[in-house]
Amino acid sequence: MNVSHRLSGLTGGGSDGWDVFYKARAMKAAGTPVVELTIGEHDIRTSPAILDEMHRAARAGHTGYAAVPGIPDLRATVAARVQARTGVPTGPQNVVITPGGQSALFAAHMAALDPGERALYLDPYYATYPGTIRGAGGVAVSVPTQSEADFQPTRAALDAALGDAPARSLLINTPNNPTGVIYGAETLGIIADFTCANDMWLISDEVYDTQVWDGAHLSPRALPGMAERTLVVGSMSKSHAMTGSRVGWLVGPEDIIAHLINLSTHTTYGVPGFLQDAALWALRQGDAFEAEIAAPFRRRRDQTLVQINAQDIVRALPSGGAMYLMLDVRATGLSGEAFADALLDAHHIATMPGESFGASAAGHIRLALTVDDAALRSAVETLLQFAAHLASKAA
């Protein structure tokens, strides 16, 4: 018996640059110390206070089936949070709670796409984006951006990717993983005009909205005429260091959310109640609590930029948010994948090749700022020295 084409074609084939990550994990499993600057996993784990609330809720009996759309108080709190931050009227009827942001991404594309319809996404991209589109039955179409333009999408690139064939959706992510770039009002205006002109859904992944270092986060749902065509993905994972708890949400028009609740009934059947109770407690702690969780990444970004700006071989892309830095290593003469592999072999420092996030990031690497300040400073110093050595050989 054969597996379905939908599953066999999910990843598009090939390693997509993730071989370096798997190699680093194998080295660690074999006992070799490795400094991992790979995935976006907080080094400071979920707050004990959140875990206490999780434990309290479980012990109190909230361990049975929970309301599939999400418990009412959590839906209302998410809605109030979104309305306060965007100014867009939002009620519980506009929110469905999902098992993490990834589930929300899949649900959004299930809402937007019929089988065989095209769906656009920006390159560089979070690694699961094209597979999520394929899993929802869509045809994944990348929209290239340029390192020299700070990976900001242009109308020309969007139009070229669309071509003469219609597309049903465009997926964006700001603040962006992997680049750290924030899309400002001008870029989001271009995106809004494009989706309106082509009668498309806009799926906006905003899971890093609490990690903003420069400028401000603007949700495209707040732009004129966009609330009725925008689906916003949110999550507790990054804002509250609850990556393993799998509590996310999708915000959108009431009629679409009603259909997505039906989807949840037939797929996930909701999120455990004690996890939702913990998420509700965490959200009620307010902005100061979220800022405390974000603070290490702002500090580490600033620290690392000081190191990078003191040399001229490796170039850092402007990182206005998120827990990453994208570095241009083309001056070394190596691809991003080759550089990351050589750095791992020579110095046991693991980074993600830009190629693992799409063709637009070739010749780059991504650093996740997810080790303590001292370890990060030492690893970056070694990385820069290694890059200088390679560049001198390539000259």
Automatic annotation (TrEMBL):
<keyword id="KW-0663">Pyridoxal phosphate</keyword>
<keyword id="KW-0032">Aminotransferase</keyword>
<dbReference type="GO" id="GO:0030170">
    <property type="term" value="F:pyridoxal phosphate binding"/>
</dbReference>
<feature type="domain" description="Aminotransferase class I/classII large">
    <location>
        <begin position="33"/>
        <end position="383"/>
    </location>
</feature>
<keyword id="KW-0808">Transferase</keyword>
<protein>
    <recommendedName>
        <fullName>Aminotransferase</fullName>
        <ecNumber>2.6.1.-</ecNumber>
    </recommendedName>
</protein>
<dbReference type="InterPro" id="IPR050596">
    <property type="entry name" value="AspAT/PAT-like"/>
</dbReference>
<dbReference type="InterPro" id="IPR015424">
    <property type="entry name" value="PyrdxlP-dep_Trfase"/>
</dbReference>
<dbReference type="Pfam" id="PF00155">
    <property type="entry name" value="Aminotran_1_2"/>
</dbReference>
<dbReference type="InterPro" id="IPR015421">
    <property type="entry name" value="PyrdxlP-dep_Trfase_major"/>
</dbReference>
<dbReference type="GO" id="GO:0006520">
    <property type="term" value="P:amino acid metabolic process"/>
</dbReference>
<comment type="similarity">
    <text>Belongs to the class-I pyridoxal-phosphate-dependent aminotransferase family.</text>
</comment>
<keyword id="KW-0670">Pyruvate</keyword>
<dbReference type="InterPro" id="IPR004838">
    <property type="entry name" value="NHTrfase_class1_PyrdxlP-BS"/>
</dbReference>
<dbReference type="InterPro" id="IPR004839">
    <property type="entry name" value="Aminotransferase_I/II_large"/>
</dbReference>
<dbReference type="GO" id="GO:0004069">
    <property type="term" value="F:L-aspartate:2-oxoglutarate aminotransferase activity"/>
</dbReference>
